[in-house]
Protein backbone atom coordinates (compact mmCIF):
# COMPACT_ATOMS: atom_id res chain seq x y z
CA UNK A 1 0.00 0.00 0.00
CA UNK A 2 1.46 3.35 -0.98
CA UNK A 3 1.54 6.40 1.26
CA UNK A 4 -1.22 8.06 -0.79
CA UNK A 5 -3.61 5.11 -0.50
CA UNK A 6 -2.73 4.74 3.16
CA UNK A 7 -3.57 8.41 3.65
CA UNK A 8 -6.86 8.00 1.82
CA UNK A 9 -7.69 4.97 3.96
CA UNK A 10 -7.02 7.03 7.08
CA UNK A 11 -9.23 9.84 5.80
CA UNK A 12 -12.08 7.45 5.01
CA UNK A 13 -11.69 5.83 8.45
CA UNK A 14 -11.83 9.25 10.02
CA UNK A 15 -14.91 10.19 8.02
CA UNK A 16 -16.84 6.95 8.61
CA UNK A 17 -15.75 5.56 11.98
CA UNK A 18 -14.65 8.51 14.09
CA UNK A 19 -17.11 10.89 15.60
CA UNK A 20 -15.23 14.13 16.10
CA UNK A 21 -16.73 16.52 18.52
CA UNK A 22 -16.65 20.15 17.54
CA UNK A 23 -14.70 20.98 20.68
CA UNK A 24 -11.84 18.51 20.03
CA UNK A 25 -11.60 19.58 16.42
CA UNK A 26 -11.62 23.27 17.33
CA UNK A 27 -9.14 22.88 20.18
CA UNK A 28 -6.48 21.26 18.02
CA UNK A 29 -6.86 23.73 15.22
CA UNK A 30 -6.96 26.51 17.80
CA UNK A 31 -3.44 25.45 18.80
CA UNK A 32 -2.33 25.91 15.20
CA UNK A 33 -4.17 29.22 14.87
CA UNK A 34 -2.67 30.60 18.08
CA UNK A 35 0.86 29.66 17.00
CA UNK A 36 0.21 31.07 13.52
CA UNK A 37 -1.02 34.32 15.08
CA UNK A 38 1.99 34.58 17.38
CA UNK A 39 4.38 34.10 14.46
CA UNK A 40 2.45 36.53 12.25
CA UNK A 41 2.29 39.23 14.93
CA UNK A 42 5.97 38.73 15.74
CA UNK A 43 6.91 39.21 12.08
CA UNK A 44 4.49 42.13 11.69
CA UNK A 45 5.69 44.10 14.71
CA UNK A 46 9.32 43.04 15.13
CA UNK A 47 10.17 42.63 11.46
CA UNK A 48 10.70 40.13 8.71
CA UNK A 49 14.43 39.71 9.38
CA UNK A 50 13.90 38.60 12.99
CA UNK A 51 11.09 36.29 11.84
CA UNK A 52 13.42 34.62 9.34
CA UNK A 53 15.99 34.31 12.14
CA UNK A 54 13.38 32.53 14.30
CA UNK A 55 12.58 30.03 11.55
CA UNK A 56 16.26 29.34 10.93
CA UNK A 57 16.92 29.08 14.68
CA UNK A 58 14.42 26.20 14.82
CA UNK A 59 16.62 24.20 12.42
CA UNK A 60 19.84 25.02 14.22
CA UNK A 61 18.33 24.19 17.61
CA UNK A 62 17.04 20.87 16.29
CA UNK A 63 20.52 19.93 15.08
CA UNK A 64 22.02 20.52 18.52
CA UNK A 65 19.03 19.03 20.32
CA UNK A 66 19.42 15.74 18.44
CA UNK A 67 23.17 15.67 19.12
CA UNK A 68 22.86 16.82 22.76
CA UNK A 69 24.85 14.25 24.77
CA UNK A 70 23.15 14.82 28.15
CA UNK A 71 19.52 14.01 27.37
CA UNK A 72 19.82 10.98 29.63
CA UNK A 73 20.00 13.43 32.55
CA UNK A 74 16.63 14.97 31.65
CA UNK A 75 13.73 13.66 33.73
CA UNK A 76 11.60 10.88 32.25
CA UNK A 77 8.74 10.85 34.75
CA UNK A 78 6.17 12.23 35.31
CA UNK A 79 5.21 12.73 31.68
CA UNK A 80 4.55 16.47 31.93
CA UNK A 81 7.91 17.10 33.59
CA UNK A 82 9.69 15.08 30.89
CA UNK A 83 7.90 17.03 28.16
CA UNK A 84 8.69 20.38 29.76
CA UNK A 85 12.36 19.42 30.19
CA UNK A 86 12.74 18.45 26.54
CA UNK A 87 10.79 21.44 25.25
CA UNK A 88 12.72 23.72 27.62
CA UNK A 89 16.03 22.47 26.26
CA UNK A 90 14.82 23.00 22.69
CA UNK A 91 13.56 26.51 23.49
CA UNK A 92 16.85 27.42 25.18
CA UNK A 93 18.79 26.24 22.13
CA UNK A 94 16.38 28.11 19.85
CA UNK A 95 16.89 31.35 21.79
CA UNK A 96 20.65 31.01 21.64
CA UNK A 97 20.55 30.45 17.88
CA UNK A 98 18.00 33.23 17.43
CA UNK A 99 20.39 35.68 19.08
CA UNK A 100 23.25 34.49 16.88
CA UNK A 101 21.20 34.50 13.68
CA UNK A 102 19.59 37.85 14.45
CA UNK A 103 23.06 39.35 14.33
CA UNK A 104 23.59 37.75 10.92
CA UNK A 105 20.15 38.21 9.36
CA UNK A 106 20.13 41.98 9.57
CA UNK A 107 18.75 42.78 6.17
CA UNK A 108 15.99 45.34 6.46
CA UNK A 109 15.47 45.00 2.73
CA UNK A 110 14.02 41.51 3.10
CA UNK A 111 10.59 41.42 1.53
CA UNK A 112 7.89 38.95 2.43
CA UNK A 113 4.35 39.93 1.49
CA UNK A 114 1.30 39.45 3.68
CA UNK A 115 0.37 36.18 1.97
CA UNK A 116 3.94 34.95 2.33
CA UNK A 117 3.99 35.99 5.97
CA UNK A 118 0.79 34.05 6.68
CA UNK A 119 2.12 31.02 4.78
CA UNK A 120 5.47 31.10 6.60
CA UNK A 121 3.69 31.52 9.94
CA UNK A 122 1.58 28.46 9.18
CA UNK A 123 4.63 26.47 8.07
CA UNK A 124 6.51 27.46 11.24
CA UNK A 125 3.55 26.33 13.33
CA UNK A 126 3.30 23.06 11.42
CA UNK A 127 7.05 22.56 11.90
CA UNK A 128 6.65 22.82 15.67
CA UNK A 129 3.66 20.47 15.74
CA UNK A 130 5.60 17.93 13.64
CA UNK A 131 8.44 18.18 16.17
CA UNK A 132 5.91 17.66 18.95
CA UNK A 133 4.71 14.47 17.28
CA UNK A 134 8.06 12.97 16.37
CA UNK A 135 10.69 14.41 18.71
CA UNK A 136 9.10 15.49 21.99
CA UNK A 137 7.09 13.15 24.26
CA UNK A 138 3.81 15.05 23.72
CA UNK A 139 1.69 11.91 23.24
CA UNK A 140 2.11 11.08 26.94
CA UNK A 141 0.58 14.42 27.92
CA UNK A 142 -1.87 15.39 25.17
CA UNK A 143 -3.72 13.36 22.57
CA UNK A 144 -4.43 15.20 19.36
CA UNK A 145 -7.60 14.48 17.40
CA UNK A 146 -7.54 12.05 14.49
CA UNK A 147 -7.81 14.98 12.06
CA UNK A 148 -4.46 16.35 13.26
CA UNK A 149 -3.03 12.81 13.55
CA UNK A 150 -3.63 12.25 9.86
CA UNK A 151 -1.62 15.36 9.00
CA UNK A 152 1.29 15.00 11.40
CA UNK A 153 1.58 11.47 12.83
CA UNK A 154 2.87 9.48 9.81
CA UNK A 155 6.66 9.31 9.83
CA UNK A 156 6.68 9.76 6.05
CA UNK A 157 5.19 13.23 6.48
CA UNK A 158 7.73 14.41 9.06
CA UNK A 159 10.34 15.21 6.42
CA UNK A 160 7.88 17.39 4.50
CA UNK A 161 6.67 19.30 7.55
CA UNK A 162 10.27 19.64 8.69
CA UNK A 163 11.49 21.04 5.37
CA UNK A 164 8.38 23.15 4.63
CA UNK A 165 9.56 26.39 6.34
CA UNK A 166 12.90 26.26 4.51
CA UNK A 167 11.17 25.66 1.18
CA UNK A 168 8.74 28.47 2.01
CA UNK A 169 11.61 30.83 2.80
CA UNK A 170 13.27 29.91 -0.49
CA UNK A 171 10.21 30.84 -2.51
CA UNK A 172 8.58 33.59 -0.47
CA UNK A 173 11.44 35.70 0.91
CA UNK A 174 13.03 38.14 -1.48
- Tell me the structural class: mainly alpha
- How many β-strand stretches? 0
Provide the low-confidence segments as ranges. none
Instruction: Note the overall shape.
Output: globular
Description of the molecule:
This protein is an all-alpha fold and 174 residues long. The protein is 76% helix and 0% strand. It has one domain (3-172). The chain is built from 7 helices and no strands. The chain is globular and about 45 Å long. The mean pLDDT is 83.
Sequence-ordered SSE layout with sheet pairings:
Layout: H1 3-17, H2 22-46, H3 48-67, H4 79-104, H5 114-134, H6 146-152, H7 155-172
Key traits:
76% helix, mainly alpha, 174 residues
Give a brief rundown of this model:
With 174 residues, the protein is mainly alpha-helical.
